[in-house]
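User: I'm writing a tutorial on reading structure tokens. Could you give me a worked example: one chain, its sequence, then its tokens, then a sentence or two explaining what the tokens reveal?
Assistant: Sure. Here is the example chain.
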Amino acid sequence: MIQYKDNHITIFQSALYQTNSVIIETDKLVLVIDPTWLPNEVKKIQNYVYKNKKHKDVYLLFTHSDFDHILGYGAFSHIKVIASKKLNDTPDKQSIINSIKDFDDSYYLTREYEIKFPNVDISISKEYEELEIGDIKFYFYHAPGHTEDGIITVLEPFGIVIAGDYLSNVEFPYIYHSSDDYLATLEKFESIIEKYDINILIPGHGGFTNDKTEMKKRISESIDYILQVKQLLLEDKQEETYALIKKYNYPKAMKKFHDYNLTLLKKELAL
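And here are its predicted structure tokens:
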């Protein structure tokens, strides 16, 4: 379950969708990011945090409001939460909770904690908002596109980028909000990689990378996917778009996400 560990970073990767939950440990702080998925997986993350926190303050960070990223909140609900203002203000809170309950019901899963939407204590509302807690400096960037309420978080002095559901090596872009916003967010990643001395990029799903060439490759592949799908739709070649997802390991399962992208993009293009 632990995909990666060093002196400051522990990445727990779920058996489901290669979803990453991240723990950052410093001398003064423990930061838990998107604790998620199966009850036993959340329990292991919870146990790890409480075993290692000692005298340190603990904070939760949520990258966006997709149900698979917030469903572990109840296991840490007494801890202060950092998230975007748009996540805090989302009108879809109940439907997101319903998605969690539907998932658990589908697999007869029982959790030891209450399923509820995060109560945000520190709300990120500005572009390039800065925050200092303990010995971590946070730099936040709005990241709409996948969802409307996403944020990119840079953690210094460690050179960590928490990407949310962007720049995965196992998924093409899943666009639930806006393709134009998605492209703009990808441009932000380009500038972030140039601006900061980035040591590691951690996406919401798939493998992390500490290679800047790989980071740039993931950005360009995401841009290419969106632009190619748009162009093929404009040329009335929808069937040809499916070739773009064949290189991924799970194209049959991913087809529904590509189909959703097609529906959204056709609406945006007025087709």
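What the tokens reveal: The longest strand covers residues 136-142. The chain has seven helices and twelve strands.
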